[in-house]
Amino acid sequence: xxVLGLESTAHTFGASIMDxxxxxxxxxxxxxxxxxxxxxxxxxxxHLENFDKVIRTALKNAGKSMKDVELVSFSQSPxxxxxxxxGAVIARSLALKNKIPIIGVNHCVAHLEIxxxxxxFEDPVMLYVSGANTQxxxxxxxxxxxxxxxxxxGAGNFIDHFGRLIGLGFPAGKKIEESALKGxxxxxxxxxxxxxxxxxxxxxxxxxQKIESKQYNINDLCYSVQETVFAELVEISERALAHCSKKExxxxxxxxxxxxxxxxxxxxxxxxxxxxxxxxxxxxxxxxAMIAWTGLLKYDSSGADKMEDxxxxxxxRTEEVEVAWx
Amino acid sequence: MKELFRGxxxxxxxxxxxxxxxxxxxxxxxxKELDEKLRKARTKNEINLLRRASSAGVCVPKVxxxxxxxxxxxxxxxxxxxxxxxxxxxxxxxxxxxxxxxxINALHGNNIIHGDLTTSNMILSNGKVxxxxxxxxxxxxxxxxxxVDLHLIKQALIAKHNRVWRKCFETIKENYNDAQVLERxxxxxxxxxxxx
Lengths: 326, 196
Ligand SMILES: Nc1ncnc2c1ncn2[C@@H]1O[C@H](COP(=O)(O)OP(=O)(O)O)[C@@H](O)[C@H]1O
Ligand SMILES: [Mg+2]
Fold this sequence. Notes:
The complex is a heterodimer. Chain A is α/β, with parallel strands linked by helices. Chain A contains 10 helices and 12 strands. Chain B is globular. The termini of chain B are far apart. Adenosine-5'-diphosphate binds at residues 5, 7-10, 12, 20, 22, 61, 73-76, 80, 120-121, 123, 132-133, 135 of chain B.
């Protein structure tokens, strides 16, 4: 079956064509800025400008046309309301115009499903770290459950906020990763882990003071921020592996592309006899292949959605999602 | 010494019939400075809180020999709650979580915040619920800190024991005396769960 997946929850608009479990194409356009953060209105403008091109390129690279598509799958929850809405409207229009079934999927669950497909892991714990989300998710009693999460902001948002303090645009993760490599001295920072939860507010305030004092080398701070934040994330992942007695770990979300974070996960898993496989960057970050794939899983187990069930939901929690395919 | 259990942070060895050694092993994924600081601080913290809890009459293992990254404690023979809950009927659950609730209430009543309240860190032994693993704990009289502690156990129940979590958490709350903390719990949850 040929599936068109559409991702539109935040900064990335993506389109992907899958032929059953084969990704044939996956395209995206990402909203970025030189300075300043994500503004929903600007993201919408960006996606409106790019969606047509992204979808056409995905079809073209797959050697398909809209006529070949047998199912349209779109990101229905959670995310920025207006951005979800735009994706839903595009998906509905394509489905109606071409008389093909439509299906809405949960973005967080989709990250986990594409990770399972690409790693071949049966039952992994997923550390999901993107801008807005920081969660430890694992399958338990028929659903994807959140074992730990941030109590305030997502790790990605924290990193971007820190980036703004040192004058970087959006997203700042990549630049901070580069600066961190030049850092030499570890600066002690607040370390806030509570069980399997984390929080970053205290760390942010502390860094703000440090930067204002001008007593610290920026590279050293980038290095110390990464070492501290990633140690927290790896620690809660390890706690989830132990608590759930699971043996496989995957890392998804934009922050999951960070090489140092991946290295730390690999070492942790090796030391406790668990398995870790990094995802290719394009499928760790927001992408449309994960939407196509999860749509297909859902379609195979419970059929298409009725048009009236394609309403978006900004806040659906991961554990509210029915997982009929597992 | 025989290795008995491997937790998330520590390895537990059997010293003898009655005594265990908990050793926080080096984690090579984090840099040495951070690793040593965390292991040292948590070991010290855990010992301190276990002693306080013990003198406050809460069921916890008694601490003996102390070192930089390890300490000895009583071997609590019993069953971890996480391996036990799913086999219980409603009445048994009620009875068990009454004990859990009273235990948490006693800890908080003495301003002891556990910091990692999950069913991996409670052992049922001779009809009593023992609390272990205080490395992430702290001393605090703040309602906020106590509420976050309650949020942890709630979240742990929802995730791991979804079929029965409501009943279990209700029972904990019924046996928890500080209304101000229960009120605070609501605002802690609003904060964590309002992500876009
Ligand atoms: N005093 C004890 N008596 C019996 N079993 C214990 C005791 N302390 C720890 N354990 C066992 O060892 C496991 C790991 O110990 P814990 O203190 O929770 O370490 P970690 O910080 O690594 O989770 C526990 O889940 C429990 O099964
Ligand atoms: Mg433990």
